[in-house]
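Subject: sequence -> structure tokens, single chain

Hey, anyone have a minute? Need the predicted structure for the following. Not urgent.
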Amino acid sequence: MKDYRLSSWKKYPNELFYIAAMAALILQLLHLRYDLLLHFDKDLGLLSYSARSMVDALLLLLPYWLLPAKLRIYYVSIIVFLFSFWGLSQLWYYRTYDDLMPFSSFLLFDNISSLLLNSIKASMKLTDILFILPPFFLFILYWFLFVDTIKKTPVNSKKRVIYTISILLFAILIHLMNAYVFYSKMQNRTTCHLGIRYVNTVNYISYFDFNGFAKR
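Reply:
Had a minute. Here:
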């Protein structure tokens, strides 16, 4: 009897690896919700946050379908590494300053000192290891299951265009819904607009809480 699961894995390795990479990023974003955002916003809904996290992961990985096949694994590796670094940095930063660190601060190399390193060390928790487990298992999965089948199974340009457009349309839909839900709860709609959720934030963590990562 034919094993359709094995057939799908061999027929759609690029798609399945993309989904696996997306799942790894979503798990990391859910970790941030549990270990960071719920301390800031106890009413943060799991469903709405999960939808925004899915969009974040889809958009971060979108160039996968635009790049030549030989460059895709390098792109995924870079994105996953940078996001893991960003996420851990935000966990440690929030435990000290009750906010997220802006992207521009990552380039302030002159601020690196023994005091900063000691502050980071004091902010670390053993549970932070859980944050890097999803990408760790992702690449184990890639090397043992996908590395050969992906090379043997190219994705034609028509499919890549369909995937790209579908992802963009889905992202737009989710963020329109995200904006409308917030707008519909406003008491005085005459003084605000549909995009108020994306501009009416007081700090970096409130923006991330409201809108997710990829819209920053």
